[in-house]
Description:
By secondary structure, this protein is α+β, with helices and mostly antiparallel strands. It has a single domain (3-101), classed as CATH 3.30.1330.30. It contains five helices and four strands, in the order H-E-H-E-H-E-H-E-H. The chain has helices at 3-17, 25-33, 48-61, 72-79, 91-101; strands at 21-23, 39-42, 64-67, 85-88. A four-stranded mixed beta sheet has the order 1-4-2-3, sandwiched between helices. Helix 3 (48-61) links the parallel strand 2 (39-42) and strand 3. The chain is globular and about 35 Å long. The two termini are 14 Å apart.
Amino acid sequence: MNGNNEKLFGLLTVCRRAGRMTMGFDSCKESMEKGKAKLVILASDISPKSEKEVRFFGGKYGVTVIKTAASRSEFAKGLGKEAAVYAICDDGFAKRTAELAGDP
């Protein structure tokens, strides 16, 4: 894990503990529908079909979607739960996450 990933997972851990994150496709889709999601991040090894669906809903609900360089297993190690889709439901966390994640 590179230094940027460590910073990213540190931030995401705080975000999760603060209750400002949803994990998994269905939960993230629901967060977008309700207007709670400010940013959605994807694992690098998300399936093309799932990525297409998430990007569709992101566009529909005006939520930025960023694909990270981190795999699902790296997210599992960093956050304790393996998923390919994570929604950040806080403006401050979303802004800093976008700065750290960026498209690979």
